[in-house]
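[Meeting: bench + compute handoff]

Bench side (C.D.) handed over the final construct sequence. Compute side (W.E.) agreed to return the predicted structure before the next meeting so the bench team could plan truncations. Sequence as handed over:
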Amino acid sequence: MRSSAYLRIRRALCLLGLATVTTLPLSVVSAEERYTVDIVRKEAQKITIAIAGFPPLKSGLTNEDPGTRAGSILTDDLKSTGMFDVVDPSFLPVEAARVELGQEKGLLPALSTLKVQALVVGRLSSRDGGLVLEGQLFEVAKGEMLSGKRYAGDTRTLRTMVHRLADEIVFRLTGEKGIASSRIAYVSSVNGAKEIYVMDYDAYNPLLITGNHSINLSPRWSPDGKKIAYTSYRDRNPDLFVIDLETGRRQKISSNPGLNVAPAWSPDGKWLVFSMSSRTGTNLVMIRPDGTGLRQLTHGPHIDISPSFAPNGRQIVFSSDRGGTPQIYVMDIEGTNIRRLTFGAGDYSVSPRWSPRGDKIAFVGKARGSFDIFLISPDGTGLIQLTASSRHNEEPSWSADGRHILFTSTRNGSRHLYMMRADGSNQRQVTRSGGENYLADWSP
């Protein structure tokens, strides 16, 4: 018999739209497989894009208008990437909502005059009791369709359908994976318990993962996004667990008396590295996700914690007090060639996270009495401070595209999740409701 936890997760996954959204073929699209895009975008240059269509659609049961809402979600998704300038609809030469699929040809010359580079035309319609989202992407200068997609779902999966369309647009115009369909695992404190939740990247659809009324910490996504490793005090010891989000199966993989905390997945998903305490110190150990193959990587009386793999899987960055104060160190996967990285971010540097692009490491440093987010290159050069003068900013986590960093901040009083671009710009609050929210990890 399937457990109640499994049923709860499956039900919530449906609400998240992870189980019911399908991508349908769109026969009118002849250019769907065209990957060559002539729009040239320099690193700091944004693509100017217009969004049209998305006419109002009555849901039938309420006064909600999911058609217009779909256009608003898409606008927010594209703005969140930091790669697009979305044209204000009032600047378009026609009323945006009156543009229908197939009518874009008459609009493209005027958009070209306005230096608009790309156009999205979308429509949400009702079909067989569900919803169908259609979206077409055009390169304005050439008048060519770059992509056409159709997604089927219902009102519960509307956000998921739009997120997928947003990611399709990002991929077609930049060649990179979008973040709109990504999710965030985090800890939320409510009524004394610390439970792990998963939510959309924009804080919608929170889903309770633990629910044991205990202390649950440090959730970490597996590279395929199907599992989460975490530490739980459920059985009165900080043990290490792995939960399969598809089956609901939860396995305790390390229960050594003492700490079994701060896990990190290897890029191939075959190993976890975490901190295990003993009478002689807290060191990094490696274990398979099924709990076998345990072997120790570091040795000594100090505290080694917060490991994070390099994208190539050959190196691990971690925090250690082996030099007297907590600092950031890098070592090879065998536990050899240990070297210190941080010297200029104060006497306290912790929580390192290696960028998915491999070129930067984000960490927390203590500067002038407060904790802030810093970046440093893997060779120890290029130290940059990203946050300042905003109380404490901690626990950085990278988006899969390496363009954004999620972090915890107390700048508005209690701990909540915030997001910023990798250069420290556009810092904004993500979570606002519930108790305190922190210790986040961004899904692949």
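W.E. noted at the follow-up: The mean pLDDT is 89. C.D. will use this when planning the next construct.
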